[in-house]
Amino acid sequence: MITLIRSELFRMATIRSSWVSLALFGAVTAAAGVADATWWALFAGIGAFGISVLTVTQHYQHRTVSLLYVARPNRFQVLLAQVGTTVAVAWSLALLSGVPNLLRHGGQVYFRTLVVVPIMAVFGAALAAIVRRSAWLISGFGIWFVIVEGIATQFRWPLPMTSYMDASRGDGFGIEVFSVWAAVALAVAAVALRRDLSGD
Questions:
Q1: CA-closest candidate to residue 33, choices 47, 50, 13, 12
Q2: What is the pTM of this model?
Q3: Integer CA distances (angstroms), 40 to 5, 10, 46, 50, 87, in order
Q4: CB-based burial of residue 92 (10 Å sphere; 0-12 exposed, 13-18 middle, 19+ buried)?
Q5: Using the 8-state DSSP alphabet, how is residue 63 labeled?
Q6: What is the rounded distance in angstroms from the CA atom of residue 85 to the CA atom of residue 101?
Q7: What is the DSSP letter of 149?
């Protein structure tokens, strides 16, 4: 598991698009934190989701997943390593990008968001293992967030992003609900990992 996590971190560090994206998104998230603590929490969650989706789906996009599974036949162990990698990177990005938010608005939202960002990373990585296409998943997530959670339910139902935002504001029930969303997504991903790779 440590070897897999190390190789995933090395891959993220050596692919220029990965670290450039992390740097740019970290800067945008930090700027959002200067304006408003809630905006920073939202961008930190979106960043965690994006990092996890891109980390998992890059293997399918670049056709390296077959080689990865030949080297490591236990597909669920590979997914757990990817989840661990995305949790570490997303949490580190939130930790660093939240410093302006911490200095300007205090630590209440900052520390609560640091608790829930890893759950968002697990949720994103699990969905990526199910969908396997980053463009589909990120665009679908955006449509879901704006239309379903924003317009249709007005952020009142315990759906994933609403639960995430509630949790970042300190709602214990929001953390519980969002943890259930992540656990269900991970369980479905464990089943979806058995799918044939020829269609990807």
A1: 47
A2: 0.90
A3: 27, 27, 10, 15, 18
A4: middle
A5: T
A6: 25
A7: I
Over the stretch 126-152, which tens digit does the pLDDT of each residue have? Answer: 999 999 998 999 999 999 999 999 999
Render pLDDT for 156-172 as a digit per residue (tens, 0 to 9): 999 999 999 999 998 99
Total residue length of the chain = 200
Tokens 């056709």 found at = 63
Two tokens, residue 142: 């955006």
CA distance 161 to 136: 18
Average pLDDT over residues 19-41: 87
Cα distances (Å, whole numbers) of residue 105 to 113, 114, 129, 142, 169 = 13, 15, 36, 27, 13
Residue 38: name the closest of 122, 104, 89, 124 by CA. 104
- H-helix segments, the chain: 2-14, 16-35, 37-61, 65-71, 75-97, 99-105, 108-131, 134-143, 160-168, 172-192
> In terms of Cα–Cα distance, which of 167, 170, 169, 193 is closest to 179?
167
Max mean pLDDT range (16-20, 23-27, 157-161, 193-197): 157-161
Residue 102 has pLDDT above 60, yes or no: yes
